[in-house]
Design goal:
mainly alpha; 68 residues; rod-shaped
């Protein structure tokens, strides 16, 4: 089966547009995921610092004899 050149060019153009659109959506999703990961990392650090502060306060109470 032989396709006319115009049809072949149209199909190549349509596929190129689809590919560009797909890559753009993928990259956009990657950026969104990177922001989510950054936010989670910051929240983890915040909670970890709070945990260590509370653990330190608890140890101080145990060492001072206030907590048996």
């Amino acid at each position: 089966m032989h396709m006319p050149a115009e049809l072949w060019d149209f199909l190549k153009l349509a596929f190129g547009i689809y590919l560009a659109y797909s890559l753009n959506r993928f990259n956009s999703g990657q950026r969104d995921q990177a922001k989510i990961n950054k936010d989670l990392y910051e929240k983890h650090n915040e909670l970890n610092q709070e945990f260590h502060e509370l653990r330190g306060e608890h140890r101080n109470r145990i060492n001072s004899g206030k907590c048996q």
